[in-house]
Structures are given as structure tokens and as C-alpha cells.
């Protein structure tokens, strides 16, 4: 059962895809007001884990959101409490950036009701936060990969949820916008929000409070990003092809040459 500080608790979570087991009974907790990065090799099961936590995949076991079993939380409550940014999300290409972001307000709106002043304010704030306000009238399909990602990020922010799940949120973002994303996550966490992000950029992932290392559909490690044991687990899951070093007060993961070359 989840503790009082638990934003998400995952209990013996199993997922099969295409008839094959992908997640093999995962137990994991995410504390409120913390940022956790989920890392691991390609195909390890990171996206599957995040999707199952969002209630987007059939699974066995339990997921608790803010202390309540996900299965018992009405869809509208869930959509208000948990915002989702998926990987390579398609569709909605003909909608403007503004209207896409307004989709994030749907959980707050009555059926077929016009957007309220609060909805419009949330959308403007979200688009300004991701610096996408200037192209609010452009269709999503006309935007570059990075511009599109900033609109989808704005849609997730517009929900104003307590828990944000983001799968590869840095995809297509240039370094300044990656840095802005980092500032944004830190601001969200300082407001008490909980952020869980799947990241391939290990240097960025190590900026989080906690790291979850996934390998072969299991949790290889969960620990603080400053903990040397976490660094060793990260190096091990990538076959020691990366090494974690301290640089100017931050942790960085640098590529290592293969032993065989
Ligand atoms: N729809 C599906 N049907 C069958 N197998 C799937 C399906 N989706 C994913 N898989 C498999 O499940 C495993 C986990 O996939 P998942 O996308 O969760 O990995 P990941 O850790 O997020 O990988 P990546 O870093 O490459 O994004 C992979 O072996 C993948 O091939």
C-alpha cells in the first residue's frame, strides 16, 4: 500500500505486449514533489512502464495514483491529476498549436462547454512557458520537430496536474530549450508537483532527484542521482560503455570505448 508521501506506487506490475511478457512484476514508488528519471537500454521497457502507470496499457498488478488505486479513479479525475506527454505522438496535425494546448484543459471542462477564462489563462501560460506562444495560430503539422514538441509540452503543462509523466520530453529540443525544460521541471517540483521522465540524455537524467534504472523489464536500481551506487548501476546497465563523472558541480555520463575495439 502507498505511504502518505506517495504520488505513484506500482505494485507487482506485469505487462505483456504481442503475447510476450515485457514487464515482469515491477514494484516501485515515486514520492510527491520529486523528479525521477527513468533510464535504461533500448527495449528495456521504460515506455511500457510509463504507459502502464498512466493507465494506457492493460496490466496486472496495481498502480496507485495519489493513494488511490488507478482502477478506482474516475477517468476525469485521473486526467486532472496526471498529465501525459507521449513519445512520437501523432494526430491533431490540422489543429492549431493553441487548440492542441487547449486539449490539455478538457479534463477541467464541462461536456461541450466553451473554454473559461481560467482555461485560456492556463493555455497562454503554458505556451509562453515553452516559448511556443508566437506560433499559436499555426497548425501543428506545419511546425518543426522541436516546435511541435514544445506545443505538446505546453499541452501537458496546461493540465496543471499534480503528477506529470513525460516520455522522452527532450526529443528534438535544441540545447537552450533542453536547458529551459530543466528549469521548468525544477520549478514544477518546487511547487510540489511530481515529475517522472523517461530520458536517453543521461547527463540530463542525472540532474533529477532520483534515477530508476530499467533492464529487461525489471528494475535494476532506484536511488538518488548523487549516490555513487546509482552511478555504478547506470554504468553497469550500459555495459560500462558510459562512465559517470563530476564536472563543475554536476554529474555527467561520458562514453567509454568498447573493450573489444
Ligand atoms: N505493441 C507491441 N507489441 C509487441 N511488442 C512490443 C510492442 N511495443 C513494444 N514492444 C516491445 O516491448 C519491449 C519494451 O518496449 P518499450 O518501448 O517499453 O522499451 P523502451 O525501454 O522504452 O525502449 P526505447 O529506449 O527504445 O524507447 C521491446 O522489446 C519492444 O520491442
Automatic annotation (TrEMBL):
Q: Which GO terms describe its molecular function?
A: ATP binding; ATP hydrolysis activity
Where does this protein come from, organism-wise? Hydrogenophaga crassostreae
* Alphabetized UniProt keyword annotations: ATP-binding, Cell membrane, Membrane, Nucleotide-binding, Translocase, Transport
Gene3D superfamilies the record matches: P-loop containing nucleotide triphosphate hydrolases (3.40.50.300)
- Residue span(s) of domain ABC transporter: 8-241
PANTHER family xref list: HEMIN IMPORT ATP-BINDING PROTEIN HMUV
The answer, when asked if Ribonucleoprotein is one of the entry's keywords, is: no
Summary of the function given for this chain in its UniProt record: Part of the ABC transporter complex HmuTUV involved in hemin import. Responsible for energy coupling to the transport system.
Protein's recorded name: ABC transporter
